[in-house]
Structure formats: structure tokens, C-alpha cells
Amino acid sequence: MVCRHYQELDAFVQEAKKKTGEGKVADYIPALAESGQDSLSVTIYHAENTCLTAGDADRTFTLQSISKVLSLALVLMDYGKEKVFSCVGQEPTGDPFNSMIKLETVNPGKPLNPMINAGALVVTSLIKGHSPKDRLNYLLGFIRRLANNQEITYCRHVAESEFSSSMINRAMCYYMKQYGIFKGDVEEVMDLYTKQCAIKMSSLDLAKIGCVFALDGKHPETGEQVIKKDVARICKTFMVTCGMYNASGEFAIKVGIPAKSGVSGGIMGISPYNFGIGIFGPALDEKGNSIAGVKLLEIMSEKYRLSYFLKHFLS
Ligand code: GLU
Asked: Smaller CB count within 10 Å for the chain: N or C?
């Protein structure tokens, strides 16, 4: 698939790019610090299999937290809402993604939602398979179907870098294990979780996955219902309430679309007009969102009237 370079989008990228200097590339996972500070690219993938791009769109990047929506979709389809929501809640926290404070103060041991690290670790521990290898292949197979790209795999370098430095995530697993919420083997789940976060793709792959969500789980190219309709709806709702970390409220006001970001600088957005958006801009704001990526979405939302909360979507 060749994406058309789109001049108007390019102008928006140039405008948003001015923000990159105010952000900072994540370095708490050492390998992420190797990304360039001032890069920004975007791809838009529409249901009719057309595609527009601007910026350095050939670059690949790791999903990090964006993967949390995809693992959630998989386990919701395998286990159903009741089982999944008995282990993880449905409320935003207002805290940073790696905070553990509410694990102790609210419903001890049960994470508030699947978009924060504690909740995502529980979700990953539920991924089905007879062995760690099986579980990884099962997740990768699902993500390859979502992007309709069999080449997708994880970046070993980033996965190993996070695996050897993730002590807070390990601490949260043990804490939840004490309360019987987390049932897996901590090291095995950490291995799968870090590989999940290190799954690597281009903004085109990401935009295509966004388009699957925009079409309520149906794939624009293959026509396959890859995600059940109800599960796609739940995932999109989580993206609105907690997809942009503890800036989700402000993002809902300024942009108004379901979106999920990751500390690599990726953002997946879902437009009400049947298209998905994939963004990569590694410089982050203080909440962990791509600083120029958010600016770009603000510009696009204003220009193309993307907010789900505008009246014309209700009539
Ligand atoms: N792998 C990252 C972590 O667990 C994901 C965080 C993120 O992208 O928000 O810290």
C-alpha cells in the first residue's frame, strides 16, 4: 500500500513540530532514549483503503502503552467482561501510568483500569497459551491480523532494556499477587509484557489498527471482524476516559476522539469519520504524551471537526 503524501497534513506537521523542543524523549527505559527528539510523522488510514501521510512516516517505533488496548481487546474476547472486570476496574485514576498509590488506597490489590501499568500487567497475565512462547505468538498473531501485516514483530533491544530496568512494574505484580488478583508467574509475565510493549510498527500499521476500531472491529482490507463489536466499543471508551494518561480529560476537551499514547511517542487515534490515525513523535510532555503529536491532533480536530462531542454526531 502506497500512502499519498498530503500537503495540508504536512503543513500541520510543520506547525506542530515547533513543540518538540519543549518535550523530552523517555529515558527510563534506556533504549527509548535513542529516538530523535524532533521527529514527527502521521498517517491517516480510511475505511475505503485510502491512506494519507506526512512527515518521516517510514520510521518504525515500539507500541509501549498503545499495546495495552490491544491486549485488552484480546482478553475481553477470550474471557468476557465479567471475568476481566473482576480483576481490573473501569475508572480513571488521575495518577501517572506507573503509579501504585491507589493499589493500596482503593480496593486493595485491584488496579483501577487496564490502561495504567498495574491493570495492563493483570491483563497480560491473562493472555492464553500453554507456554510463554505460545502466549507471545498468540498476541503477535492477533496484532498481525489487526494491521494485516505478517511482518510485525517485537524489538528485542527495547524489550531487554525494559525487562532489566522494570522494578516498579515487578513490585506492582507482587503486590497484586498478595491479594490474589495477579495469578501468573511474575518473571514470565514481565517477559511477555516487555515484549508486548516492544512490538514495533510503522504509523501506517498503527493507523490501520485505528481504522479497525473506527469500524467497530471490522478490518477495512480483509473484511474480517477481528474484534467483536462490543469489545471495540469498550476499548474505545477506555481510550476516551484513560487513553492519554492523566491528561485524558484535557485531551477529550481539546481533541475529543478516542486515542491511546505510549512513552515511545506513538499515538493511535480513532476518528468518527471511519479513519484511524497513527502518529510518532518521541518528545514527550510531562504526562508522557507525545507533545507535538497532541498538538497535531488538536490542529486536525479543529480543522476537520473531529470531536465526538460535537452536536452533529448526535443528529
Ligand atoms: N512499557 C512501558 C512501561 O510499562 C509502557 C508505559 C507507557 O507507554 O506508558 O513502563
From this structure: C
What whole-number distance in Å separates Cα of residue 211 and Cα of residue 206? 9
Confidence of residue 98 (pLDDT cuts 50, 70, 90): confident
| Domains within the chain, CATH numbers bracketed | 4-62+201-314 (3.40.710.10), 66-197 (1.10.1500.10)
- Determine the length of the chain: 315
| Number of Cβ atoms within 10 Å of the Cβ of 86 | 11
Tell how far the Cα of 123 is from the centroid of ligand 1, in angstroms: 14
Per annotation, catalytic residue among 84, 245, 264, 271: 245
DSSP 218: B
Specify the pLDDT at position 3. 87
The Cα 158–Cα 179 span in angstroms is 31
Instruction: Using a cut of 0.90, tell me whether the model's pTM lies above it.
Output: yes
* C-alpha torsion sign, points 79, 128, 197, 265: negative
Ligand 1 within 6 A of CB of 265: no
6 tagged catalytic? no
Q: State whether the beta carbon of 243 lies less than 6 angstroms from ligand 1.
A: no
68 is catalytic: yes
Q: Is the dihedral of CA 36, 149, 184, 243 positive or negative?
A: positive
Averaged pLDDT, 46-63: 92
> What are the pLDDT digits (tens) for 104-154?
888 888 999 999 999 999 999 999 999 999 999 999 999 999 999 999 999
Tell me, yes or no, if 294 is annotated catalytic.
Answer: no
Q: Give me the pLDDT at residue 313, please.
A: 59
Q: Which of 70, 51, 50 is nearest to 62 (CA)?
A: 70
From residue 224, give the alpha-carbon distance in Å to each of 119, 172, 212, 314: 28, 37, 10, 28
Integer Cα distance of 65 and 71 in angstroms: 10
Mean pLDDT calculated for residue range 286-297: 97
